[in-house]
Amino acid sequence: MAKRERWGTRIGLILAMAGNAVGLGNFLRFPVQAAQNGGGAFMIPYFVAFLLLGIPLMWVEWAIGRYGGKFGHGSAPGMFDAMWKAPISKYLGALGLFISTVIMVYYTYIESWTLAFSFFSITKAYFGETTFDAMRSFLQSYQGIEKNYFQSILPAYFFMCVTLFINFFILYRGISRGIEMLAKIAMPTLFLFAIILVIRVVTLGTPDPVNHPDWNVESGFAFIWNPDFSKLGDAKIWLAAAGQIFFTLSVGMGTLQAYASYLRESDDIALSGLSTASTNEFVEVILGASIAIPVAAAFFGIETTQEIAKGGAFNLGFVSMPIIFQKLPFGEFFGFLWFLLLFFAGITSSVAMAQPLIAFLKEEFGISHGRATALIGFSVFVAIQFVVFFLKHGFLDEMDYWAGTFGLVLFALFEIIIFAWIFGMDKGWAEITKGADIKIPRIFYYIIKYITPLYLLFIMINWLVQDAIPTFLMKDVEPEDVPYRWGARALMFLIFTIIILMVKTAWAKRANKMGV
Ligand code: PHE
Ligand code: NA
Predict the structure, then answer these.
(1) Which of 33, 343, 359, 396 is the most buried (most CB within 10 A)?
(2) Could you give the CA distance from residue 308 to residue 319 in angstroms, rounded to a whole number?
(3) H or E segment to which residue 190 belongs
């Protein structure tokens, strides 16, 4: 077996893992989720989900990854097969490949908008579009939904190509020379930019004391942090909180496992996993919560901010923020920082999404690294066309729902059952604690074995009933979008089928080789 790649340094590994977790989810998805789901009250189910789902799954995924790596597997089919010798296990693992791949297709497109908007900030392209309608129209013309500032989708297409190229160039350079190097540059820069922006926001005070004395940063913080306990009885906010924890920590995707497979057998998991999770939470709850919402409250007041949050993450990031930058001295500079920050957060996550598939093609098919990277780059380029051209018909939303929201929980459920019940919790615990630099409280043994799986099951069932079935039946979809939504499902089905067939072929080849 060819020697597998390794992480170069411990700090590099931690930065790469943190880069995987810290993404657009921290700066765009989190503030919107918090604002939509009861502000401070959201933080209670959020914290519970962090403790009972996030942390346990973080350790479990690191352990699965390091264990699989020992047998030369960097993707879930091989990892599951190593833990559970049953024909079905590799197909359950295929779900891990599917999820990260589908997310990559739409996530890189959004990432490319952030690159474009950092350019539009520094060149003041959108300066002059000072109302919500005007700025929304700027964004939509960029996305090719209407013709206004931009007469065609060409600029968006160009930035999409550039973004894909950078992603696959980094992936081509490999684990330590590519991903680790990127993380070592992008993560410290991201921190610096975020801190500059937070300082700018908290020192804003009350921008317009004469006309709007109660529009200030403090009211924004109060809005995010004031708990509305009456909302705690609503199952919806518990589901939203669990969904956010999953998405933001990158659990249930197969990417943490892929990264962990490049550890050495006795490398620490306990402390590194915990550091990754805490870094992500710091960036999310402290930095992410202190930029977009408080600044919107200071310039538009709480009521409008609530409206903005209802309009979703893109509305907050790409419409309301650019309007605010136009009101700030040196706004083009702060806009540049904000969007570049998002780009760095995005790219350190998107490279992670491709890694399981790259590892799969190399290790299970014996394709060279260069070919594997090129093949995936080409496939993503093909699939992304649909997202680009059918954006307004909800192609992206459909993929985000089934892969980026629902799929994760399903995969995590399979994963934890295989780990804690089939592989066995005693062996599992030994894996998690091997080489550990901290002592994990024994209670996590029981949490991982009983609480996390039950919690997941509970979420799964609630989700099915409340959300997934109505979504599947397209209850709130505009009739003209229905065919496109089916198109998105067909595309996902195709991707899934291809992955399943590849897994089947890979194992058949292996059985042949071993003469079984
Ligand atoms: N955790 C990332 C974020 O918060 C998203 C992500 C999804 C990363 C899937 C890797 C894999 O934006
Ligand atoms: Na995150």
Answers:
(1) 359
(2) 9
(3) helix 181-202
